[in-house]
Design brief:
The protein has about 130 residues and is an alpha+beta fold. It folds into two domains: about 1-50, no CATH class; about 50-115, Gyrase A, domain 2 (2-Layer Sandwich). The chain contains five helices and three strands; from the N terminus they run αααββαβα. β1 (about 70) and β2 (about 75-80) form a beta hairpin. The longest helix has 13 residues, at about 50-65. It is elongated and about 55 Å long. The chain starts with 18 loop residues before the first helix and ends in a 14-residue tail after the last helix.
């Protein structure tokens, strides 16, 4: 597939691939294309890219729920400052909120729930005024 100069660029550049190359491979391999020749999208790539941090965060939530503070629209992950540096680098930017300091990593609650495919339990907090 050749893009004409007058055509807009595709919205998912990884999904755009030269059809002529696929046709050549198909002639050699038949209809069953090799796995490495499969269609790839940006979403597929990002899902695979973040598999490790997704699994790490899920395990951390399941085994050490005390390090998570779930608020209305944000989640605070409290870890040792030395550990937070590595985690911050691995966590996708769209999940992180401003204000993370030291060992506290602040993230958007809904986006994090979607990313991890979990629903956070919000704790009951009653504030009494005397």
């Amino acid at each position: 597939m050749v893009r004409r100069e007058s055509e807009p660029y595709p919205s998912d550049i990884l999904a755009f691939r030269p059809q002529s190359l696929v046709n050549l491979i198909r002639q050699v391999c038949g209809d069953a294309l090799p796995e490495w020749c499969a269609q790839v999208s940006i979403k597929d790539y990002s899902d695979r890219k973040y598999d490790k941090i997704r699994a790490d965060l899920r395990k951390l939530y399941q085994t050490y729920s005390s390090v998570w503070e779930v608020r209305r629209d944000e989640v605070v992950l409290r870890v040792m400052p030395a550990e937070s540096f590595g985690l911050r680098k691995e966590i996708p930017d769209y999940l992180k909120k401003e204000g993370s300091k030291g060992g506290n990593i602040i993230m958007h609650c809904r986006a994090l729930e979607d990313f991890l495919d979990v629903r956070f339990r919000r704790g009951w907090r009653i504030r009494l005024r005397w």
